[in-house]
Write a structure and sequence with these properties.
The protein is an all-alpha fold. The protein has a domain of 38 residues. Helices cover 39% and strands 0% of the residues. It is elongated and about 75 Å long.
């Protein structure tokens, strides 16, 4: 990576830096690219893809209804209601 490429990346990223840091940034970006290139050499053909980096399994439970339907009791206690809903006064005209 050359300094022109670093300037182009900085411009596209809307970053500014002075010229004395340009050499350091160029070296840092080259080191990052070398490190990422090492990942291409890793043998991963026998490794299954992960859905999560954690080796935990989510606990599951049966999906059974455990609460009773208390709609009638709630509607009976409401000042105004119809067959299915609690009626409230209009707030916004």
């Amino acid at each position: 990576m050359d300094k022109k490429t670093v300037r182009t990346i900085a411009h596209l990223s809307r970053l500014t830096f002075d010229e004395k840091n340009e050499e350091k940034i160029t070296n840092d970006l080259n080191n990052i690219i070398k490190f990422v290139d090492q990942l291409n050499d890793a043998e991963t053909s026998d490794i299954e893809p992960l859905t999560s980096p954690l080796e935990k399994v989510a606990r599951t439970r049966p999906d059974n209804v455990t609460a009773e339907n208390r709609k009638e009791a709630f509607l009976k206690n409401a000042p105004l209601s119809n067959e299915d809903y609690i009626l409230v006064p209009r707030v916004v005209e």
